[in-house]
Amino acid sequence: MTPEQHRMRAQIAAHTLWANCNDPSAHTEPARRAFLERFEREVDPDGVLTADERLRRAEHARKAHFKRLALASSKARAARAAARRGGEAA
């Protein structure tokens, strides 16, 4: 299969899944829970914090994660823009 055919097959599967899903939020809940648990393990690997404190810290770790992604994206966009400007000038 070509990359385009792979992509189309994946898109068909995704659309079929969501077309037959009665509660999308419930369907994705296990993934969201696992994602947050990752940050809980990161901030409290020994499990010594209270549940409230672990959750508070995990939320901040999650926000920091997304801010790092946003910063990397911003830098990449700026680098592409600079490359385009440099390419136009040449």
Poorly predicted residue ranges: none
Overall number of domains: 1
Helix content: over 70%
What is the string of helix and strand elements?
A: HHH
Q: What is the mean predicted local confidence, pLDDT?
A: 95
Question: Key terms for this structure?
Answer:
single chain; 90 residues; mainly alpha; 3 helices; 84% helix
Q: Describe it for me?
A:
By secondary structure, this protein is an all-alpha fold. It is built from 3 helices and no strands.
List the helices and strands and how they pair.
Layout: H1 3-19, H2 24-43, H3 51-89
Quick take:
The protein is an all-alpha fold. It has helices spanning 3-19, 24-43, 51-89. The model has no long low-confidence stretch (mean pLDDT 95).
